Structure formats: structure tokens, C-alpha cells
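Section: protein folds

Sequence with per-residue C-alpha cells
===
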Amino acid sequence: MNATIEWIRTPPSGIGRPYTTVAHFPNCNYEGSWSLVVEKINGEDKHWEAKVYFLAQEAPHHLLTHGAEFGLYEGFKCVANGQIK
């Protein structure tokens, strides 16, 4: 799925390299944390369009639906917000 990503902090470096971190979907009742892979397609500074997908096969893939919002976390700190397109 494609998503827009708005970084709260400086985005990760390494053009062309996937970034993987924990994602939380605040508008769902699903418990648990899952690793989400973010691959930048285009964008500048803190505004990206990216391909996103779960790292694990058993992840709740049904959460990656159009309009779903999520946060990307490093530990307890939210580093970016995203929305599935």
C-alpha cells in the first residue's frame, strides 16, 4: 500500500533503503505492535510518499486500508504520522 508520511523529527537517511519501525493504529481496537516497513517513493524534507507493508506475515494486514491513520514509533516516541492512500 502507499501512504503519506509526515515526519515529526528528521527523517531517516539512506536514500533507497527501507526504514522499519513499530507502527500503532490509534483508530482500531487491535492490540499489539507490529513492525512496518517504509520505502520512500518520493517527497522532500519531512513530507514523503512511501510504500508501506508489515514485516511479519502474521501481522494484521487488514489495517492497511485506504484512509487508515498510523503513527511510527521509536520506543515510546512518535517520530512520524501516516495515512494509507
